[in-house]
Write a sequence for this structure.
């Protein structure tokens, strides 16, 4: 683009070229020596401008890690260090975004690549790395695991050990929804005097939302996202309120209070509770819908240790294929220093399974956990017109009954005009003929991984289908929640039997029944299909991920 803006007396644009290439026409005559020299000088100037433009660097958000804390470090010391690498004419950039001074030492700030490189060589600096954006790793289970720390009494209550009231778990996530019954403080004593944290207020969150169960809540409103050479500030609500749901979910799993008569729209009725229902909770909101900046996670770990938590829980991570080494990993760095100060850090291993070498957060000092199943399934049966019944997996709340069946059709047989067969057989958006779909239950393969089950369901629903049977060629997946739309998922063995029925019958029909809970599923527990597997790319000799 720069070359198209420069004008050379000895150059002309090729009018026939769509790319606006520039052709330099040097005079052949010896009498045009001056013209030749002029052209060469302009050409040299052109490349100097290009070189100068390439050398201009855009400041990005960096983390400057300086090792263990040796007591409180004044922010002014870090500002002084910054002033030695940032030019005087840009002194407005001499500011710190996050200051780490309790569990570890360091700070985060806006730096160019050259400034970051220069800082990395200074005494006392362990590493300097770009602020990466990490992603979220998104009732009967604890009874099934038979957690001995919370023995169940005959009358259905739980007998807490006195010391469990004093354990504080810091949840670093998307915040918390304080009004959930999982965070009620009924029966809990006074907050431990060693607690030094705060309950920050926001437009939709008051100090009174904290109690003897939810004893602290923080949010961090200065967050940056680095993307290549660009850094943009992320939008974050100035409140600990969880508008995503992930933080509330993980907090209730770890330490949710006992909630009787819990269910999901009538499914899985019983008593819900967290793994340690009498632990106290402190919430640290570091994420938005855009992600979770590593510099902010590091700040939350530093604050949590200073506040007095005993355990830190983090269900956040990067892709297994983009893992930095431990000296550039904000979670690994923060967890290391938290452990040094007696605070256990528990992290999720990721959801990129079932392939090996996909586990994240696997530093030796982190307690890394995987996802697993329990002995309960959610099944939705398929009844074919010939009387055969097949069991699928799903969560649907449809009102269909056995009394009426609907025409059954395979996606590729009801394809829209000119649609490729692979797309139609997979319910790819725009691949089906709405007139042929309307009023039918359709069968599709779970092909095209980039097209989620949610989108496939919407494709069928928008075309006025009566239901969707999805054939999962991996034969394993977590049950999909389709709401009131009739949906079920089957493996390839059952799927091909259904397709054989369609092919061999002139008027095939079927019905998809609402979901029912099936107890006693075996084997259980086993690591969930989607859960990441080890060993770690960084520590192949350490095998440690536990199902949870």
């Amino acid at each position: 683009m720069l070359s198209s803006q420069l004008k050379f007396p000895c150059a002309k644009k090729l009018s026939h070229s769509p790319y606006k290439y520039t052709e330099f026409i040097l005079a052949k005559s010896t009498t045009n020596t001056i013209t030749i020299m002029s052209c060469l000088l302009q050409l040299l100037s052109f490349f100097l401008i290009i070189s100068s433009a390439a050398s201009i660097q855009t400041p990005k958000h960096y983390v400057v890690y300086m090792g263990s804390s040796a007591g409180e470090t004044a922010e002014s010391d870090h500002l002084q260090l910054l002033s030695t690498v940032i030019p005087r004419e840009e002194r407005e950039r001499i500011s710190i975004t996050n200051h780490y001074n309790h569990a570890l030492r360091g700070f985060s700030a806006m730096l160019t690549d050259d400034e970051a490189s220069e800082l990395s060589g200074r005494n006392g600096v362990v590493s300097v790395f770009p602020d990466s954006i990490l992603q979220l790793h998104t009732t009967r289970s604890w009874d099934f695991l038979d957690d001995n720390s919370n023995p169940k009494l005959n009358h259905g209550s739980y007998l807490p050990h006195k010391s469990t009231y004093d354990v504080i778990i810091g949840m670093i996530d998307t915040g918390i929804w304080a009004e959930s019954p999982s965070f009620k403080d009924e029966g809990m004593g006074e907050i431990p005097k060693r607690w030094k944290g705060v309950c920050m207020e926001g437009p939709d969150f008051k100090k009174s939302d904290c109690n003897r169960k939810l004893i602290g809540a923080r949010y961090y409103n200065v967050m940056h996202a680095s993307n290549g050479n660009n850094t943009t500030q992320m939008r974050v609500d100035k409140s600990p309120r969880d508008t995503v749901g992930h933080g509330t979910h993980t907090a209730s799993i770890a330490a949710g209070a006992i909630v009787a008569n819990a269910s999901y729209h009538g499914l899985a009725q019983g008593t819900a509770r967290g793994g340690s229902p009498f632990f106290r909770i402190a919430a640290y909101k570091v994420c938005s819908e855009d992600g979770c900046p590593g510099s902010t996670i590091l700040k939350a770990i530093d604050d949590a240790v200073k506040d007095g938590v005993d355990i830190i829980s983090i269900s956040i991570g990067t892709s297994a294929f983009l893992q930095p080494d431990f000296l550039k990993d904000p979670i690994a760095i923060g967890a290391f220093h938290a452990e040094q100060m007696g605070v256990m850090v528990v992290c999720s291993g990721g959801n990129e399974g079932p392939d090996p070498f996909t586990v994240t957060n696997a530093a030796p000092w982190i307690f890394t956990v995987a996802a697993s199943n329990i002995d309960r399934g959610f099944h939705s049966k398929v009844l074919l017109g010939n009387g055969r019944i097949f069991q699928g997996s799903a969560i649907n709340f449809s009102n269909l009954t056995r009394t009426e069946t609907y025409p059954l059709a395979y996606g590729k047989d009801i394809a829209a005009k000119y649609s490729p067969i692979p797309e139609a057989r997979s319910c790819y958006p725009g691949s089906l003929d709405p007139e042929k779909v309307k009023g039918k239950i359709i069968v599709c393969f779970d092909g095209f991984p980039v097209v989620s089950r949610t989108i496939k369901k919407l494709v069928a629903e928008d075309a006025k289908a009566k239901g969707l049977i999805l054939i999962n060629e991996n034969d394993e997946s977590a049950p999909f929640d389709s709401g009131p739309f009739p949906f079920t998922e089957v493996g390839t063995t059952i799927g091909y039997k259904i397709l054989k029925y369609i092919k061999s019958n002139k008027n095939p029909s079927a019905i998809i029944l609402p979901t029912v809970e099936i107890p006693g599923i075996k084997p259980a527990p086993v690591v969930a299909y989607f859960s990441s597997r080890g060993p770690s790319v960084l520590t192949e000799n350490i095998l440690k991920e536990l199902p949870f």
Remarks:
- The chain has twelve helices and 30 strands.
- The domain at 376-519 is CATH 3.50.30.30 (Glucose Oxidase; domain 1).
- Residues 1-31, 50-55, 146-156, 225-229 have pLDDT under 50 and may be disordered.
